[in-house]
Design a protein that fits this description.
This protein has about 325 residues and is α+β, with helices and mostly antiparallel strands. It contains 9 helices and 11 strands. The strands form 2 sheets. Strands 1, 2, 3, 4, 5, 6 and 7 form a 7-stranded mixed sheet that branches. Strands 9-10-8-11 form a 4-stranded antiparallel sheet. A hairpin with a 6-residue loop joins strand 9 and strand 10. Helix 1 packs antiparallel against helix 3, helix 2 crosses helix 3 and helix 6 runs antiparallel to helix 7. The longest helix is centred in the C-terminal third of the chain and has 24 residues. It binds (3R)-3-hydroxy-3-methyl-5-(phosphonooxy)pentanoic acid. The site of (3R)-3-hydroxy-3-methyl-5-(phosphonooxy)pentanoic acid has 13 residues, from helix 5. (3R)-3-hydroxy-3-methyl-5-(phosphonooxy)pentanoic acid (PMV) binds next to helix 5.
């Protein structure tokens, strides 16, 4: 037994949020520069957790940390070391409760740190299953998108509960992710859309289908290395999401500011009604201009992320 380390990262949904709930594909991007790190140090006393504002016994960490506590238990169990106490520390480069996947990322990092400390090997499928177990505590019935994307080396396609790595051949482009400063309300957004769909399937259904088609177009654009086409799909997706009542004035203002500063495309990302926006810029210079325009338009934080080509083999 020794000190163990685990590392995961943030995720952003590029296209297909909401329509994925109705069986269409969605695309999620791992944001490798925005890391979540965990260390697991063997200790003699009770297990301790230091995460965000909490510092104290793991067992007293409360509902806000239930996902981490469950991840910790699952990893000790998997390693056959339920008797071993640890001091767990998590540190993150990105905020929580903004649709960036922080709960799955924290669970994944803690699981990796504990397994590393115990010298226990695990397959990608084992790691995914352990992370999902922890996410179920936090979210009830998580789709698995966050658990997969926060540890994937490449973009992933998600449809009907199935995940597939995606090829990404856009060179030199950057994503800009900006926090609106308003907590996302995914559950409310998903429930509200369901009600509107049931009340008016002929009006709402085609809009949901068009989000699915735009995600499909985005998958083709990534594969072809076509940043213009990806940007257009993102712009159109934002319009449709807004038409479906999932945007907010602040999200419309931020996406407009990004486009005015030269973004090829901009949209809300994730559940909507708050959370983050995501924009695509064709170069590092444009990305910097877009990020500063987003900050001027009121975003408390904006991150730029360089897209890396990747093949889809896993
Ligand atoms: O807000 P996030 O990043 O958890 O994304 C929610 C994505 C939805 O499609 C709106 C809901 C879901 O379960 O897929």
């Amino acid at each position: 037994i020794r000190e163990g380390h685990g590392r995961t990262w943030a995720k952003a949904i590029l296209l297909g949020e909401h329509s994925v709930v109705y069986g269409h594909p969605a695309v999620a991007m791992p944001l490798h520069d925005l890391q979540m790190r965990a260390t697991a140090t063997p200790t003699a006393g009770p297990s301790m957790l230091h995460s965000l504002e909490y510092s104290g016994p793991m067992g007293d960490s409360g509902p806000g940390f239930a996902c981490i506590a469950r991840a910790f238990e699952a990893a000790r169990e998997f390693s056959g070391r339920m008797d071993q106490s640890f001091e767990i520390v998590t540190t993150s480069d990105f905020p929580h409760e903004r649709g960036m996947g922080s709960s799955a990322a924290a669970a994944g990092a803690v699981i990796r740190a504990v397994l590393d400390a115990c010298g226990r090997e695990a397959s990608a499928d084992d790691l995914f299953a352990l992370t999902q177990m922890a996410e179920q505590i936090a979210h009830g019935r998580p789709s698995g998108l966050d658990a997969a994307a926060t540890s994937s080396p490449c973009p992933i396609r998600f449809q009907g509960g199935q995940m597939r790595p995606l090829a990404q051949r856009i060179e030199g482009a950057q994503l800009v992710i900006a926090d609106s400063g308003v907590h996302g309300r995914t559950r409310e957004a998903v429930g509200g859309l369901r009600e509107r769909y049931e009340a008016d399937p002929d009006g709402v259904g085609p809009l949901i289908n068009s989000l699915g088609a735009l995600a499909q177009a985005g998958i083709a654009a990534l594969d072809d290395g076509d940043a213009q086409a990806l940007g257009s799909a993102m712009n159109r997706a934002h319009e449709v999401l807004a038409e479906l009542g999932l945007s907010l004035p602040v999200l419309n203002r931020l996406t407009a500011a990004a486009r005015n500063a030269g973004a090829l495309g901009a949209k809300l990302t994730g559940g909507g009604l708050g959370g983050c926006v995501i924009a695509l810029a064709d170069s590092a210079e444009t990305a910097d201009a877009v990020a500063s325009a987003l900050r001027s338009a009121g975003a408390p934080t904006a991150w730029t992320y360089r897209m890396r080509t990747s093949e889809a083999n896993r």
